[in-house]
From TrEMBL:
Superkingdom, natural source: Bacteria
SUPFAM superfamilies registered for this protein in UniProt: Pentein
Pfam families cross-referenced by the UniProt entry: DDAH_eukar
InterPro entries: Amdntrnsf_FN0238
Protein name according to UniProt: Amidinotransferase
Length: 342
């Protein structure tokens, strides 16, 4: 089993999904709801898409933890990877979020499930930086190479380099920050829309990194251990081809297998030669999620991977200490409350 590909994931079944107006200003991938379509119809379509993704991942042999959310004030809760990440060795990170109406997506019940079902040693909470206007939106802002321990990060106001460096110190990653922009010079809001890192293959829009020297450094760092780099175009990025994630599933006969999960829209944008490279190490699993993609994110954004060891059945977990990663952070996680939000 690769450290890169988790065999379990967390999904949030957001029953009141709508594209979030609070994030539209800086998310160039976000789109309007079709004219004449009610919020109820949008939510119903999105719910069906979430269920389809959960079922496709289960069929691929991935363990899926689903959490329901009926709160109409959390339009983006379907994207839990922005507030939560898990790491080998029993570490969990909780992140500061840019949009104020996203900050109460953090859920104590998700952390409780992790502590009861997996070995969690420490929860590091950076969310106390929000009042200072400093943000790092999890594995949306960072694309993590868990094998080589590198945190690739497109710099934006959702990805502050000071928090990035602190995260890398706390969790043992090397920061690799860079600017990334579209053809109009608009900064990329989240790194995970332009890059996906698997065990043996990476997909990335290197052409969207304007600094040629930094572009080559990123290419070299991605491929240093023999990983194949599939270069994506900006047009493919706008079809969410970069917003994919490698997971570890099981075949019907119980053998481990790697899958690359993405949307059907993303899959259709890939050229045959790109698909051939991906399929050398992964089976492609794609799901049609056009309603959710209106919010500017795709399959990768919907998945929080679980990189933790499972607890044996019947074992009572030890109390989990919560560590404030920044000295000024007044918030802790005690299993009942996360930064004041239930």
């Amino acid at each position: 089993m690769s450290a890169q590909a988790p065999s379990a994931v967390i999904l949030v079944r957001a029953e009141r999904f709508v594209p979030n107006p609070a994030t539209a200003a800086d998310n160039a991938f976000q789109a309007r709801t079709p004219a004449g379509q009610s919020e109820q119809a949008t939510a119903a379509k999105a719910l069906a898409e979430m269920d389809a993704l959960a079922e496709a991942l289960r069929e691929a042999g991935v363990r899926v933890h689903v959490f329901d959310d009926q709160d109409h004030t959390r339009p983006d809760s379907v994207f839990p990877n922005n507030w939560l990440s898990t790491h080998a060795g029993g570490m969990v990170a909780v992140y500061p979020m840019y949009a104020s109406n996203r900050r109460h997506e953090r859920r104590a019940d998700v952390l409780e499930m992790l502590k009861s079902s997996y070995r969690v040693q420490t929860i590091v909470d950076y969310s106390g930086l929000e009042p200072d206007g400093i943000f790092l939106e999890g594995t949306g802002a960072m694309v993590l190479d868990h094998v080589s321990r590198v945190a690739y990060t497109a710099v934006s106001h959702r990805a502050d380099t000071h928090v990035l460096e602190r995260f890398c110190t706390d969790f043992g990653y090397e920061p690799m920050a860079f600017d990334a922009v579209d053809a109009g010079g608009v900064p990329v809001y989240h790194t995970n829309v332009i890059a996906c890192i698997g065990t043996d293959v990476a997909m990335i829009a290197l052409e969207m990194i304007p600094d040629l020297a930094r572009r080559e450094q990123v290419r070299e760092r991605l491929s240093v251990n023999g990983r194949q780099v599939v270069e994506l175009t900006e047009e493919q990025i706008r079809e969410f081809a970069g917003n994919a994630v490698e997971l570890c599933g099981r075949t019907p006969d119980g053998r481990r297998s790697y899958v690359m999960a993405m949307s059907s829209r993303a899959r259709r944008s890939l050229r045959p030669d790109q698909v051939a490279v991906i399929e050398q190490s992964c089976t492609l699993v794609d799901v049609d999620i056009p309603t959710i993609e209106l919010a500017g994110g795709s399959v990768r954004c919907m998945i929080a991977g679980v990189h933790l060891d499972r607890r044996p059945p019947g074992v009572v977990p030890e109390p989990t200490p919560a560590v404030a990663a920044i000295d000024e952070n007044p918030h802790t996680v005690d299993g009942r409350d996360v930064a004041g939000d239930a």
